[in-house]
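<context>
A single protein, sequence plus fold
<entry> Chain with its tokenised backbone below
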Amino acid sequence: MALDVKKIGIIGAGQMGNGIAHVCALAGLDVRLNDVSEERVAAGLATINGNMARQIGRGQLSEVDRKAALDHIAPSTDFNDLSDCDLVIEAATENEDTKRKIFVKLCPSLRADAIVASNTSSISITRLASVTDRPERFIGIHFMNPVPVMQLVELIRGIATDDSTFETAKGFIEKLGKTSTVSEDFPAFIVNRILLPMINEAIYTLYEGVGSVEAIDTAMRLGANHPMGPLQLADFIGLDTCLSVMQVLHEGLADSKYRPCPLLVKYVEAGWLGRKTKRGFYDYRSGSPVPTR
């Protein structure tokens, strides 16, 4: 039997975690937003409040609904706070070791029937599920960024994921008013299996001197009708996340076409991770993006 999800735990109050909390609260679900410190949770809540204020400015949300949604979100820095959640979604950094440690520590705090999910954009659901005490009640629920705007959610079953877990996850996505698509548990799933190699190829195009940052992004915006150029998109996603996904693809599929571009590696090593560090393929420190190459 599918579970009727009413209370959600979200681990990670960063870009993805606060976005998931945002849409869950607007759907009337009770949310526990968890992170390692009160400061990180407070920053996540401030981002949610700011994003909802922008929705009000665009006429997409009323002030009454904003206040009601914020009342549905409670801060947390302790996994024991998630003990009564129906579903807990991990939205930590895209690093397998980090995620595995979270699940090992998390599971003893949960109800036996609680479902655990990862918002990973590339890592094997089967491998992540194997470190839990409930692989049959573990599933990939991959939201797209920015969560309040993007309609799609990828659902990924691990080898042990049972039907009731899948149906619960599917019903949860419907409750949020979003559309789910189902991917097999292969590296990077569907969206990033296609999208990240394109971004990586754009970085190779820059690395090889075929075009400048501005030329490449303009070419893809106007020549392929993309809403933003691939290098601008890489900065938005985070260059560290882009590199992590390409490494998963390269290692998981053992094909040289997925080799991360050396320039991407260099930017990550420099700490130039895109918008979140105010420098990537564009420099954002002055307020207006300026190409760095």
About this structure: DSSP finds eleven helices and ten strands in the chain. The chain has a mean pLDDT of 97. The first helix runs from residue 15 to 26.
